[in-house]
Amino acid sequence: MTNIILPVDFSEDATEKLVQGALKFAREISGKICLIHVAPTDIGFAIGDMGFQYFPEIEQNEIKHELVQLNTLEQRIIAQGVDCEHLLKQGIAGDVILEYAKEKSAGYIVMGSHGRSNMYDVFVGSLTKELTRRSPIPVLVIPIH
């Protein structure tokens, strides 16, 4: 069975379109979807009058919420007849996703593309663009605009 890495960020429309595309692809190749959500490492930090402050309870609550979302998404995928597992990890998204793909001996990474301009990429960056450049395995890009 081919492992398919599916990074998700829980943005409503984009995640749904991405999951539907990954489900179709997984069925075609009899693959297993390996969901991954990469949470930023600065979730609990805030800037106030006293400078940077860290609030671990904010980070813990956000991580718990994201884990519930991952569990729900995993169960939806399994209910549609495709094997699935998930991982939530904090770190730098591109590095974590590629590390997970290597760990799972994945055959593919499925990413979404909003179809934004190159100027957007210059100022904000594009994880999809980064992964298509750095990944040693094929990256399937699904348009989600």
Automatic annotation (TrEMBL):
Return any one Pfam family short name.
Answer: Usp
Report which superkingdom the organism of origin falls in.
Bacteria
Q: Which InterPro entries match?
A: Rossmann-like_a/b/a_fold (IPR014729), Universal_stress_UspA (IPR006015), UspA (IPR006016)
The UspA domain covers which part of the protein?
A: 2-143
Which family is annotated?
Answer: Belongs to the universal stress protein A family.
**What protein name applies here?**
Universal stress protein UspA
Q: Which organism is it from?
A: Kaistella antarctica
Which lineage is the organism of this entry classified under, starting from the top rank?
Bacteria, Pseudomonadati, Bacteroidota, Flavobacteriia, Flavobacteriales
